[in-house]
Amino acid sequence: MPALKTKLLAVFVLLSAYRAAAVAKSAIRSADVLGAEHNMGDERLVLSVFVNAFHGSSAIEALLLSSPQLTTLCNMAFEGETIWQCEPGKALVDVRTLDIVGMTDRGKAGDRNETLVRSGERLPLDQQLEFYGKHWNLDRPILFCKFCFNDHMKDQKSLDRANIQRRKAVLKSFETNPPRAFVDKGIQRLQYAEIIMWRPLCLHQLSHHSPVVANKHADIVKEYFTKEITLLEEALQRIQTYMALGEPFITVGLHELVWSPADLSRRMLMFLPWLSSLDPSGNHSALKSEADFGNLHPPDECCGFDLSTQVCSFDGPEYDLFSPEELVRVRDLSLRLVNAPRGAVSMSRNR
Q1: Would you say residue 9 lies in a domain?
Q2: Which of 110, 177, 243, 257 is deepest in the core (most CB within 10 A)?
Q3: Residue 311: beta bridge partners?
Q4: Which residues span the domain enclosing 102?
Q5: Helical H segments across 73-215, by residue range
């Protein structure tokens, strides 16, 4: 038995070395893109993503997870069960102790006293930082959280500006009163950056949540498309607001993640060199890899998407629900998003 254990250990070591070598070969490094490694020292960068649910948030998180320098909230758990999709909104948190006391698929406390128990994303922003700090690996320079540090309002422009002001207030207060977990790691300053993600309208074909894919009634499909168009308008509005205010962001179209993950990885590393490396071909997501998923779903065949123009052809029968004027509006919106600034205020320097 000892000899067998020794052989098995040797095989495991060899397989681990082989996988590490393969990852090193396929990964794209910031040192290759920028010519140097970057160190954040006593700073950390909080990174969040602005995107609607079921529109690619888990896919972008899977790519980011291939970086050895990024931490997520994926170790949140209740009674041994991991919180769904690493989303703090699914964790019920005691506001007095910031312990997870339950979980829900809606992020609401249900019949609990909401003055004592809230979902993680509904905590006050300063408490959110303290709560997240209990679950992030603070030794890593980039702290990622889906759907974090954003409130909900009807007016998108007011929402964006209000969120920015609140975040700035929290980051400023952090410097004078940081949570204990951050102090213990010698962290003195936080920065914030955001991924603004959008999905071309025709890429709804990639989602089983699409009523078209599920063969729903025409009225339901038209209502769904109306909401999808609103989401695209909100993404464009957010880009314009962040540009006007000089806020750090990078835009990501879902089509880039699916069919150009290597190019996207290089662009991400230019914006966030502290990621160190990204591996778009790695087996780090439920889709196996973004590259594999894209190969299995050719853009013109699956979705009527033209990679050369990065715009939908709108040839499917579902688009007969649109008037000619509506189709012109959607095409114009798509082109404006494609031609919008792809990011601003690169985080490639310590400030």
Answers
A1: no
A2: 257
A3: 306
A4: 78-124
A5: 125-133, 156-176, 180-184
Q: What is the pLDDT of residues 84-94, one digit of tens each?
A: 778 888 889 99
Rounded distance between C-alpha atoms, residue 283 and residue 287, angstroms: 8
Q: What local confidence, expressed as pLDDT, does residue 290 receive?
A: 58
Is the same domain home to 88 and 168?
no
Tokens of 348: 């490639």
Q: For residue 152, give both structure tokens.
A: 């909900």
Name residue, tokens 């509904």. 122
Place of tokens 């758990």: 77
Query: How many domains would you assign to the chain?
Result: 2
152 is a domain residue: yes
> Distance between CA 88 and CA 103 in Å, rounded?
9
pTM as predicted: 0.82
Please indicate, yes or no, if residue 329 is contained in any of the structural domains: yes
The reply to whether 88 and 207 lie within a common domain is no
Q: Cα–Cα–Cα angle for 147, 195, 335, nearest 5°?
A: 120
pLDDT value of position 150: 66
- pLDDT for 294 equals 81
Give the Cα separation of 118 and 52 in Å (integer).
21
